[in-house]
Amino acid sequence: MNHSSGRNQRGLTLVEMMVAMTIGMILLGGVITVLTSSKVTYRVNEAMARMQENARFAFQLLSRDLRMAGYWGCGGVVPQGVDQPLEGLDAVTDTFVIRGVDGNGVVVDSHSPADMNFNVPAGAGFKAGQTVLVSNCQSAAILQVTGVITASGKDVISYALVKNNPKGNFDFKNGEAIRINTREYYIGAGKSGVPALFQKIVQTPPQSFELVEGIEDMQIQYGEDTNEDLAADIYRTADEVANWEAVVSVRIDLLVQSVEDGIASQPQTYTFNGATQTPTDRRLRQTFSTVISLRNRAS
Question: Which one-letter DSSP state was computed for residue 137?
């Protein structure tokens, strides 16, 4: 009888098992390294994309308001003694103020200057305490709404006269009525704990709104037209502007940071507004710039 089959080796030796385990650990380490690297790359790409999206959204909001600076209704008739539609303030992070119309206008159905009231379609949204511009393309006035009564499908707006352009007739029937607001844009502490772009509506009481998170700094230069060709000849900071009436464009530089910390492997050195800094956190940072033309000044 042949007993050789009983003496055949069965299973693995200890050395073979250790070799197999070592190879497995090397392969597992490679997989973990790839997954970790992929996760880091994903976080960096996601943070960069979100920063670019926040910058684009911030520029969109700022551009929409700045382009309308200086709009005073049909015909461009400006009441006498109005404040500058655009003013800036130099600070650690710059701020600027826009004064002008807000929203869409409504048609003035009738106007009684003697009784100091005018009628607009019901539901126009005017409220007591609001400031309103009325214009008929020949003259314009700024009014303070003192009361609103709805009757027969009309809102009867009573008012007190604030400022008036004496040219033309002070009867604004078939003209336009539109709200006026003063809006300030600035950088403040956001709800998520990172800096953010804010808008403050200057009214009674004032209201502030967080617009875009992750906006760490905002620096602004104002383009002045020095030879009356409707184009910017020199860009100056707010403190250096010689004539706000000659400002035809605005250059805005934004420093945007990632909302999440720990994205970079170490603190990221950056240069903004002529200064190079190294923060204590590990957020990503990127600078963005744009130039916005003031339509009512550059045309």
Answer: S
